[in-house]
Amino acid sequence: MKLFLKFFIVSLLLQPAGLLAQDRSGVFIIDDFENPNAYDNYQVGQGDQSQLTLSPSSDRLKGNYSLELSYYLKSSIPTGTYVALERYYPDKDYPDLRGMGKVGLLVKGDGSGNMMKVVFIDSDGELWEYENKSILNSVKWEMLNINFSDFKLSDSGPKKNGTFDTEQIKGYKITVYNLYSKTIQGIAVKSSQGNILVDYLYAVIMPAGGEAPAVGEEQPPEAEAEKKEGEKAKAESPIRFNGSLYSEYFNVPDQKNELMHWGRIDMNANYGLVSGKIVLAAEAQSFGDSAYRKDENDKYTGQVTADYPRAVVPFIQLRANNISGYIGNITVGNLMFEYSRYTFSPTIGYDDLWGIEKVTPDWGYKGISCEGNLKVFTYHAFLIKQAYDSFTYGARLNKHITDIRDIELSSLDLKLYYVGSGDTAQFTNDNSIRKTGEDRVYSLDLSGRFLDYQIGLEGFYAYNEYVKRAQVSYEDPYEPVYQQPLANKVSQKDTGYKAKIIFDGLLMNDFYLTYEYRHLGENFKPKNRMEPILFDDIDSDQNGHNALASYRMWGFTLTGEFDELKRISDTKYYRKRRSGTLGCSAFRNIFLSYFREWKREYYEYVSSRSYYNTARDDEIISQEFYVKAQLRYNLDLSLKLRVEDVEWPAEDKKFNSQSAYIKVNYYLASNFLVFGEIRTSRFGDVSWFSPGYNPYFDNFMRVGAMFNF
Fold first, then answer.
1. Residue 3 and residue 374: Cα distance in Å, rounded?
2. Number of H helices and number of E strands within the chain?
3. Surface-to-core class of residue 549, CB atoms within 10 Å of its CB (0-12 exposed, 13-18 middle, 19+ buried)
4. Cis ω on the peptide bond leading into residue 695 (within 30° of 0)?
5. What does the radius of gyration of the chain's CA atoms come to, in whole angstroms?
6. Are 100 and 166 in contact (CB under 8 A)?
7. What is the dihedral of CA 175, 180, 186, 187, to 10 degrees?
8. For residues 380 and 372, is the Cβ–Cβ distance under 8 A?
9. If we measure between CA atoms, which residue out of 9, 62, 28 comes closest to residue 200?
10. What is the three-class DSSP state of 704?
């Protein structure tokens, strides 16, 4: 069983609706995200394999803390995926927003290009949503202003009177999502990983022709002043604790049953301009192994070795906040950020079953970073120390422009990246540290949206330089061993670029069409790229075309995709892919999706920069049915059925594989989740089964609970 405990000492200031008449500024604070326990007020919504964690952040414009949403978007469903911060109010605490005209929310994006949606649940349960396609492109604090008239009735919720009834707001959601997902060999590829901040959600009375007060100009109701002073004093405690306990019962046919358990405590401190964070964690262990374990030699001696739980400190961070107009934050310690899939996309660990790197969003690199504003640009720069004298450093410049009406430009985003690495290893003969290689990548991203986002243009260009000077053993990734110098150093240089045009509602309402041409050189493989093995298959060594069309109507989404490429290393190799998806959210709280894909691939390759190698000559027809039912606000059920017909033309062999996956989530309270999941698979060839070691993705049962406070 998974038991997850999180201690969040943060505080919510919610004004009673009845006092609005006494509020001379006309401001109603819906949420200031200063709540003492994030998970006591909020639930997280997660689509398919996506993940979301919540934590307080000292990077804020108002109050003492904002709320950080650390997300990881991943799905095998081509219609995309999402994560959501959700809050549902008890009956007696429904906010009354009658007379309000506008909603404001402070948002600090991550430059990801993902989209944000704000949803309110009105008094008769209808979902009213507002979508913003550009605010997360900005990497500085922005105010998102939404007129109530801009909220549209969602297709995914109930249809009652069709009117935004604001006298009793039953809840709200803040969603981060993308429209489309990628898979390779049926395995979902990470679409995006990042961190955004939200703070100070409020509604305001809008005078005719007036504007909402700027943040900081509004005044609290006089009748609430004394009460708020007391709450504020409590909220200003400089130290906050967040805790987690996690327990899981895991059953697979390959080995014994396991009951796993681990815990952690997060300590956040904030004093003036300085803040810090420390995470203390207990190492995960099976209950049986928590008392003892058997080493390899124990089977000869008949003895066992004691193995007590161990405490680790995976995260330590010190930060100076809002130092000047040019320096927003300086952070020392574990760093958590992502530039792009081509320059710096964190990948830690290795998954032996699928042969891909695992991403661990909770773990950071160690180093120093600085971010702020340089008049026209916002910037981020970092230096990461690695084994011995190795290091990685980089910088990012962002320029986000909106509302240039005279040239009918909706938004323009310019992103410049540079990441460099210098690698060293220890020479065992004399314990000296020797240089083994370097890697540098330069990247330019440019995207513009025109005619109220109906036309989009995107361009990407990058240049990668790689030098390898010696053979190195990475058997222990934290202590690489210098083996011998290369007689002739390896020096590789290559480029990658893409050009894309987007029509979103221009040709007809709710019709989305894109075309992309891409060139990614055989040797364009930056060291810190997205999961290297998947990158070397999906993104590297190709000239390719992609066209995608999607049409939405009455809660249905029909999507078709064409993708074709030739391999640069040898043009006789190719991949052709055609797919179609029908998604449906027309039924209340139910999402259905049917996906069918045909893929023909012929490719033989060994990567010089990762573990990727293949000799593939196959034709695969995949079908997948997915349903997710939100049975209640605190109960959801998802089911995924997948069938693959595989043919190997050269060997005249055919295989058929099937798998089924079921997951149930039930919130006993907003901070207490009980869940269960089962996967069962039948492969066309017995050798494709899990070879008998973790992580047993093919057949398993897991039951768990997560408790956060």
1. 45
2. 4, 39
3. middle
4. yes
5. 26
6. yes
7. -50
8. no
9. 62
10. strand
| Helix (H/G/I), strand (E/B), else coil: 443 | strand
Query: Using CA atoms, how far apart are residues 353 and 360, in angstroms rounded to an integer?
Result: 17
Selection from 531, 13, 475 nearest residue 231 by Cα = 13
Is the Cβ–Cβ distance between 449 and 134 less than 8 Å? yes
Residue-wise DSSP of 449-517:
EETTTTEEEEEEEEEEEEEEEEEEE-SSTTS-EEEEEEEEEEEEEEEEEEEEEEEESSSSTTEEEEEEE
Q: How far apart are the first and last CA of the chain?
A: 18
Residue pair 365/337 in contact (Cβ under 8 Å)? The answer is no
Look at the block and give the residue holding tokens 């809008």: 206
| 133 C-beta neighbours (distance < 10 Å), count | 18
Least confident residue range of 46-50, 60-64, 147-151, 347-351: 347-351
Q: How many angstroms separate the CA atoms of 127 and 147, rounded? A: 16
Q: Identify the DSSP state of 411.
A: E
Q: Which two tokens stand for residue 10?
A: 């943060």
How many whole angstroms separate alpha carbon 528 and alpha carbon 419? 8
CB atoms under 10 Å from CB of 80, counted, come to 22
Q: Does residue 225 contact residue 127 with C-beta atoms inside 8 Å?
A: no
- Cβ 524 vs Cβ 495: under 8 Å: yes
Quote the CA–CA distance of 285 and 268 in Å, as a whole number.
Answer: 26
Which tokens sit at 315?
């995260």
202 Cα distance to chain centroid: 26
Question: 195-254: per-residue pLDDT in tens?
Answer: 899 998 999 886 555 554 444 444 333 334 334 444 444 445 677 787 888 888 988 887
The owner of tokens 């574990």 is 334
**How many CB atoms within 10 Å of residue 461?**
15
Residues 709, 688: Cα–Cα separation, whole Å:
42
H/E element, 684: none
352, burial (CB in 10 Å: exposed 0-12, middle 13-18, buried 19+): exposed
Q: With CA atoms as reference, report the closest residue to 658 among 691, 684, 677.
A: 684
User: Would strands 481-504 and 409-427 be described as parallel, antiparallel, or unpaired?
Assistant: parallel
β 274-286/311-321 pair status: antiparallel
Q: Which residues, in sequence order, are CB contacts of 636 under 8 Å at separation 6+?
A: 628, 629, 630, 664, 665
**Residue 687 and residue 689: Cα distance in Å, rounded?**
5
pLDDT at 410: 75
Could you tell me if 207 and 232 are in contact, meaning their C-beta atoms sit under 8 angstroms apart?
Answer: no
Its pTM stands at 0.83
The β-bridge partners of 213 are none
What local confidence, expressed as pLDDT, does residue 409 receive? 67
Single-letter residue type at 389 = D
Question: Could you tell me which residues come within 8 angstroms of residue 424 by beta carbon, excluding any fewer than 6 positions away?
Answer: 387, 388, 389, 390, 433, 434, 435, 436
Pairing of strands 377-385, 391-404: antiparallel
d(CA 688, CA 682): 9
What the block records as the tokens of 704 is 């768990």
| Rounded-to-integer distance, Cα 539 and Cα 374, Å | 33
Per residue in 282-299, pLDDT tens?
Answer: 877 777 666 665 565 655
pLDDT above 90 for 307: no
Q: Which helix (H) or strand (E) holds 58?
A: none
The single-letter DSSP state of residue 11 is: B
Structure tokens at 577: 């892919």
Mapping DSSP to helix (H, G, I), strand (E, B) and coil, where does residue 146 land? strand
- CA 203 from centroid of its chain's CA atoms: 28
In angstroms, the CA 231 to CA 226 distance is 9
What residue has token string 């301009």? 273
For tokens 């200063």, the residue is: 34
Across 289-301, b (16+ Cβ under 10 Å) vs e yields: ebeeeeeeeeeee
Which residue shows structure tokens 């043919």? 647
